[in-house]
Amino acid sequence: MSFTISPAQSVSLAQPALSHPRRWHALGALCVGLLLIALDTTVLNVALPTLARQLRASTAALQWIVDGYTLALGCMQLLGGAIADRVGRRRTLLFGLAAFAGASVLAAYAPSANVLILARILTGVGGAVIFPCTLASLLALFPEPGERSRALGLWSATLGLGVVVGPLLGGSLLSHYWFGSVFLLNVPIAVVAFAAVMLVLPETRTASAQSRLDLLGAVLAIAAAGAILWGLIEAPNAGWLSTRVVVALAIGISIGVVFIWWERACQFPLFPVRIFRSRRFQLGTLSITVLFFGVYGFLFVLTQDLQLRLGYGALAAGVRMLPAGVLLITAASAPAVAARLGPRAVLALGLALVGAGLDVVALTSTGTGYLPAGAGLALVGLGMGLTMPTAEGVVLASVHPVDAGVGAGANSTNLQLGGSLGVALIGSIVITAYRHRLADLHTIPSVALQAARPSLYAAAATTAHLPPALQGSFFASATAGFSRGLHLALLVGAIVCAEGAALVAGLPFYEPKHVRSAVSRVSGS
Q1: Which phi and psi (to 5°) does residue 468 adopt?
Q2: H or E segment at 450?
Q3: What is the dihedral of CA 27, 33, 38, 44, to 10 degrees?
Q4: C-alpha distances in angstroms, 388 versus 9, 165, 453?
C-alpha cells in the first residue's frame, strides 16, 4: 500500500486521531532534526580552547558564544510551540531547520567573536522552533500510549546520542580543520532533516489554530525567561549577590508573576495555566529540570577537567565521553521498565543514578586517572536514559493535544532553565574555590594571578608567560584549586539530584478532580 503526503495535508488534533500510516518514517525525520539540537549543545564544549586561540576570544566572549545559544533557545521555545500549534508544526519545523542551517554557516565563517555570538543567538532561535515541534508532532503521530512510549524512547535516545557523540565529532573535526568545521557539521544534517520532513511528515495543528496569538503573553514570557537565564549565566562571574544578578533574577521573577496573571485573564492565552495544575505535568517537568541541572553542570566541569587537568586533547577527551553512551540502551528500554515499575519509581531511580555518578567523580576528583570519570559518566548515562523518555512521556500524557506545542515548549524551557542553573551554580562553586586557591599564591606576580582569575583555561594560557621555574608549581596549584571546587560542586549537584529523586518519589500522581474536569472541557468530551 502506497501513501503520499502532500504539503497541504493536515491533521487536526481537535478530534481523536488515528495513527498515521507512515508514522515511524516521520519519527525518523523528527529525530534527525532533533539531532541538530543535541549535537550543537555538546559539540562546542571541546571547541572552546580552539576558539580562544583562533578568534582570540576573551573568556567573557567564550561564555557568550555558549550562553547566547542557550539564552535564545530557552527564551523562545514557548512562543515557538504556540506558533507551531497555530500555523502548523511541519511548516514551522521547516522554518526552524532553515534558520538553524543558515545561522550555522554564519557561525562557521564568523570573522570575529562578536559575529560568532550573534550567529549563536540566531542558531538558538532556530533550535527554539525545532525542539517543541518535534515533541508536539510526535504526540500527534502516536496517539496510542504504547507506541508513543516506544517513540519517546527513540526520541530520547537521539537526544542522548548527541550528548555522547558531540564531543567525539567536535574533537575529531578540530584535529584536522579550523573551528568553523564544528558549525558546518550542522548543515548536512539540517539538509537531510529538511528533505525528510518535506517527504514524510504530515502537517499537524490544533483546533486553536485560528485563535489570536497572545503577543503580550509572548513578550512577557520571553522577558521573564530571558532575565532569569541572563542572571543565572552571569552569576558565576559576577557573584550571586552582585547587583546585576540580583536585579536580573528579581525582574525575571516579577515579570513571570505578571505573565501568570495575564495568562489567567487572557481569552486566548499563550500558555493555558491549567497545564501546570496537572500533577503529571509537575512530576515530568520537575524530573526534567533536576535531570538537566545535574547533567549540564556535570558536563560543563568534566570537559574542562579532562582537557586541562588530566591533559587530554580535544579528540581524546571526546572519546572518553563515550561511557555515557549506555543511555542509548536504557532510553530504549525505559518505556518497558516504566510500564512494569511505574513512572515515579523509574524517574526517582534515574535521578538517583545521576546523583550517584556525580558522587563518584566528586569523591575522586583529586586523582590523576580517568577511571572514576568513566564510571561517573556511565552512571549519569544510565540515569539520563531512564529519566528522559519517562519524564517526556508523563508530560505528554498530561496535556491535551490542543496544548501539545505550548506544553512541549514549556517543558523544554524548564529543561534549559534547569541546565543553566546547573552550569551557573556548579560553575560558581568551582570558580570560587579556584580563585581562593590563586589568592594564596604569594610568589606569583599579581598581574599573572589577575590574568588567570577567569577560568582554568585562562590559567593554562597564563602559565606559558611565566618564568620556567614558576610554571609547574603555578599550574599545579591552579588545577588543585579547580579539583577542590569540582569536589564541592559535584557533591552539591549530587545532593540536588538525590533531593529531586525523593520529591519525585513522594509527589502525588493521581490527578485532582478539578484538573480532570478542565481537561475534559478542553477536549469537548
Answers
A1: -55, -35
A2: helix 446-452
A3: 160
A4: 31, 17, 36
Number of H helices, E strands in the chain: 21, 2
Burial bucket for residue 310 (CB in 10 Å: 0-12, 13-18, 19+): middle
Dihedrals φ, ψ of 366, to 5°? -90, 0
In this structure, the number of other CB atoms found within 10 A of the CB of residue 77 comes to: 32
Instruction: For the chain, give the number of residues.
Output: 525
Over residues 23-80, the pLDDT tens digits come to: 888 999 999 998 888 888 777 766 766 776 777 766 567 767 777 887 788 788 888 8
Q: What is the residue type of 233?
A: I
Spatial separation of the C-alpha atoms in residues 220 and 217, rounded to whole Å:
5
- Candidates 438, 437, 434; CA nearest to 448 is 438
Indicate the burial class of 140 (C-beta count within 10 angstroms; 0-12, 13-18, 19 or more).
buried
Greatest Cα pair distance, the chain, in angstroms, is 79
**Residue-wise burial string across 114-135, b where 16 or more C-beta atoms lie within 10 A, e elsewhere:** eebbbbbbbbbbbbbbbbbbbb
Contacts of 465 (CB under 8 A, 6+ apart): 448
pLDDT tens readout for residues 504-516: 988 766 555 544 4
- Could you give the angle at which helices 327-341 and 371-398 cross, rounded to 10 degrees? 50
Q: Where are the alpha helices (DSSP H) in 110-214?
A: 113-141, 145-174, 181-184, 186-200
Q: What residues does 205 pair with on adjacent strands?
A: 12
